[in-house]
């Protein structure tokens, strides 16, 4: 049964709407607002609409309601702020639960604007005490280093140093550290902190406020130490898991959206595996998960993985193909859990199915088209300027050094041939640009264009993956992720993802990265030390054609 | 069946020997030395005995073996030290697993003496860089505070402060911080750190070296933040749990030793519960566990809980009696997990068995006899000195202010009467002291002495629990623990623990603390703020008799 047939059969897509989230595990209490807010912060960006009831005093009900909504929003902000203050300043022996609950519920009830205001209060009013820090530093600098004339350390003096250094460490902790620590102790608190950081990140993206950046970087350091991979439980997610957990998989699958219940069931069924990393303090919700297909050979298209072929008997599989990895917590951005997850999944699969000897991915190339289109557009502009002799466009004659023909002479000819009449006067890059930008990816439907473009796009894609860098690392984020973990770029696959997303991102090309167990460590080291991208020989050869 | 019958029946006590630990979950690999070392560090205090093989060169085999053992111990130390250095100094992108494994296995292979040496190296050679700290401080102090004349903060200046404060925080971290963080990320690393801290504590107890104290206090702060109670799983331990876990319960039960398999089975059977706190990074080993008996009324003797009465049907129970709480990790000393455990167990029992309305303990009073005997001995000495007119014993006449008759006139008479002829010329306190110190607790076997001593010891015990303080807190550690958690001292129970340990610690007296759900918070606050010990009315009255 093909994808279309299934879609007709099912009619219902199960991507959750905000209502679907009401089954989520609550943060603090089963009836709290926290529920709906957790994954849909934007839903609460505006104060809730006032009910349409007419007020008794006969005034303009609309403006009255608007006013009362404002007042209640203001009140909500004040309450959340007070709860936050109590949560930070109360004595550690006082019982915290109710106050922390009050704070987090209050926070979830705020609009995004008020959340931002509150986070600013947190960052500014609960920063460290600079006067105290300076005083301690002056005392510290007044001490003689605890080394006597003979160069040996004086144990007695050292005691003083240890004590003062401890005090300095504590004084250099912003006051909001206490809030983070207390929330971490609290059931649901870690999840709340992840939501709070997600908010922070989205605010910073809009407006890069230094105090919020400092708050974020402090919180991130805390989250890194709390989310030790040794604490995470590797869970094999199956059709027998609770719907509330499976719903999360559907909601957060970021690479190849799950289209129906049957799709989900296949991904958890025979010949397939789905592994999630669960943290004990965030129950029922994997922080990150990976989907695996057990195959005879390294899969070449996402269609065969997800739809076309019935799975083979597992005992015949010799390859574990990782075809999707998704993280569920925007608030944990920058904390690389995927690395540990892949490592542990490989270990587990190897133990349970010793006949599996190849560990590979079938991965998207999310940045390829964006890179290619911008390269082509830039070159077209340069060419245009040159032909019009717009010397102002170049500062000096060296400007032409930026000109680069992305195509070989042969490729240029092939494109112009395939594109036919409408190309007169244009060069190959312009034609390619127009073809790739054509609506509905028309080029993929043409029997003339498709074979002509294939070798060109495949070569350029290899160049993109193997040579385009950013700060010494692969430009493509997925490539960088797998190379960091020690994989090798093994093979490019043409028309491997014909979905709208696949065509837009990478012209339908996908890539296999391979994890070769005996060379992972070596690859990691060479990638980090020299930036060398490990790839199969023939990929290097493809590039050298030019 | 009584205790004696069982003992005869069983013959085998299952308190584990070092061999029993070979079933433990390994720290890093199933065959590593780590296994046996984990809970038996002392077993390796001396280098392993050389094999009795005779050397080929005909020299004195014994001294040769001693020499080669020394060489191999020295080599072991160097290897562990090198592995430690690599674990700290390697680049974070290098793969750590093998090095961390090497370090921990090397550490476990060391004698206690070499461990101490290695920990000193860690504390001293991997401390913070004081010159760097001073330099950063000087730079920091050179900055103008980021507040302009109008008293508002300059955001641009703040950025600099945030950056420098972050650098200072990092510079103030000793270099060994990296080792702790890396171990925490590593499977088995948290357990290893707990063993390492246990070693540290035992070394410090012998020799209070400032650098080791600083190392310990740093590590403790780390462990506190990693062992968040929200991360701990509350597990109801049953007879269906793996033997490797049950073995831990037997090994670590610190209050009422488990005498046989049948004893263990009863403690996990009908009418009983055992709850443990498990950390995901230390699998198969509760960090702390609590034993609960479901009873009609608050139990008065440990005999009835452990042996005498068959359990009642659980539906008839109205009281959950906590009769034992034990922590398994000496390396987590000072980290109060018990408080959270009791709270969560109460919540869980309330939810699952709503008919239970009383939550109480049956607790030992570990410090009572020690306190009483030292009080009595001191008073006897004072009395002796006075009777001999050893004026040098008092610095001045005010010395007599230390004299206190712990007994009322009536109690004095009762004791002298009961003790009979041998008491001539002695006062009541001297007689009491001698009786309590008599071998085999003979006083408990005398029909004359027992009833005479009962009211006296019960009154003094109430005084000990309710009035004797240390830094404003209850002197008795178990009392302090439950009072901190919000319990009330409810009732003293005479001859509630007739075991050797019970008689030595508290003359057989046990105490019920009660957790009254609606006053827990209030009790915590009053205990912490004023040191007030909440107790039942009649206990206060007993004391006021004097």
Automatic annotation (TrEMBL), chains A, B:
Annotated protein name in UniProt: Malonyl-CoA decarboxylase
Domain Malonyl-CoA decarboxylase C-terminal stretches: 231-516
One term of GO molecular function: malonyl-CoA decarboxylase activity
Comp. bias intervals (Polar residues): 20-56
Single GO cellular component term: peroxisomal matrix
Location of the region described as Disordered in the Swiss-Prot/TrEMBL record: 20-64
One GO BP annotation of this record: malonyl-CoA catabolic process
Pfam families reported in the protein's UniProt record: MCD, MCD_N
Record domain Malonyl-CoA decarboxylase N-terminal: where: 163-226
Source organism superkingdom: Eukaryota
Provenance organism: Carnegiea gigantea
